[in-house]
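hey so i finally got around to running the thing on that chain from the lab meeting. sorry it took forever, my laptop kept dying and i had to restart like 3 times. anyway pasting the input first so we r on the same page abt which one it is
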Amino acid sequence: MPSKVPFQIKICGITSVDDAFMAADSGSDAIGLNFYQQSRRSVTLDQANTIIKALHRHSVSSAHETAKLDAILSRERLKRVGVFVNHTMGEVVTTASRLKLDGVQLHGNESISFVKKLVDVLSRREKQPFIVRAIRACNEPNELARVAAEIQRWASIGVDAVLIDAAVPGEYGGTGKTVDWNAVSRLNDDSPIPIVLAGGLKPNNVQKAIQVSGVQAVDVASGVEISPGVKSHELVDEFVQHCQFDGNPNMATH
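ok and heres what got predicted. didnt touch it at all, straight out
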């Protein structure tokens, strides 16, 4: 039986304090801070630090005290996940430590030996972030078997979850392309660790994607944007409201 999911609804590619607040207030339970410099959604260490500090400031403008408290709590509970693509061990560990990240998502070509060492290094930290390994999948013969074997390998070295995204040559995510949800369902049935579904998710398809794939966690970036790195409040709210897991309303509100 897969272990507990580290998050259920992650709004990835957050680049501003306002968008981080929006993600928290919508009911999502995680944000992604992208440190891959070639991404149109990348942030610097200083920008990420500003966003994270702001989430702790309790500066919520609301006339209603209960609503104000709810907003404060949702912002404090929001999980901060750093997204890394082929960074060095030192860069990942230093960033995770300085920002006190809740999670590390590896979205590049990191090897088994690299990730195994990273798991070991992070396990010795006072605040141990969970690790999510991205796997890019395409619709080709034997792809299901390849991805299933890869999931088993990552699970065997201590990775906490895998993220299934669409394979696009030269890209490391955020492409808006979907994966085969039926194939993900078959992977999910036998996976020893949770699967996070990504790739082309939008407010108008996320509910079906969850129902077909059976996953307990989703990740979205381009599907809730006005432009790369700029989120739409309306789309984020709509996306979260359409996330239902096991027939229940989204777990971010629990």
